[in-house]
Design goal:
2 copies of one chain form a homodimer. By secondary structure, chain A is an alpha+beta fold. Chain A has one domain: Orthogonal Bundle (Arc Repressor Mutant, subunit A). Chain A is built from 4 helices and 4 strands, in the order ββαααββα. The two termini of chain A are 21 Å apart.
């Protein structure tokens, strides 16, 4: 057996951050492009943009900065707040998963409980 | 914001234990009756019994002992293995949730990250 864990953050009953949204922010950060990030997730540009906008509304801060046109053909990058959220959530998720694994081992890797 | 966490255990890609199944075992333990437990969960007796049987098959041990008929009208109770699983999973779930909350506070209850 192995433990599984689905993590997310909520505010007023609405999902504000999740592993899926983390992946979206990470891909924007890596590719410098919302459309490239959307493509890797199998989302339309419109859908990916909607997710970023929802996230920004729920958190009340701008996370992605998009420049359109120009010689470079535009692009998207995370704002300092976006980078900060990505880093914090990634660490939260990693630490939480390690703790879940540890809690599992403590309870299930030994003989019958008292 | 607050962290949320859905926990379960898997074996060969199949769910072997979850918070919902814990609730079912706890209700059988408290009521001494599978039908009373099923009713509290809004399940049919047949459906609840199927869940117990699946759980027993996945784990390879008998968890519930059912006596039918007799003066007491039958009843169900957890076997020692059932009690053991209930206790371990409950502690695993509690410890894991506390750890997830702690990981959240560490990352999100302070100023911008480095």
């Amino acid at each position: 057996m192995e433990p599984r864990c689905k993590l997310w953050l909520e505010k007023d009953g609405k999902v504000t951050m999740s592993d899926y949204r983390l992946r979206l922010l990470q891909l924007i950060d890596e590719t410098g492009s919302l459309s490239a990030a959307a493509e890797q997730l199998g989302l339309s540009y419109r859908r990916a943009w909607g997710k970023v906008r929802d996230l920004e509304e729920h958190l009340g801060s701008q996370l992605v900065d998009s420049a359109s046109g120009g010689a470079s053909g535009g692009g998207s990058r995370l704002t300092p707040e976006g980078v900060d959220l990505m880093r914090r959530y990634r660490r939260f998720s990693e630490t939480a998963r390690e703790a879940v694994d540890r809690a599992y081992r403590v309870e299930f890797s030994r003989g019958p409980s008292a």
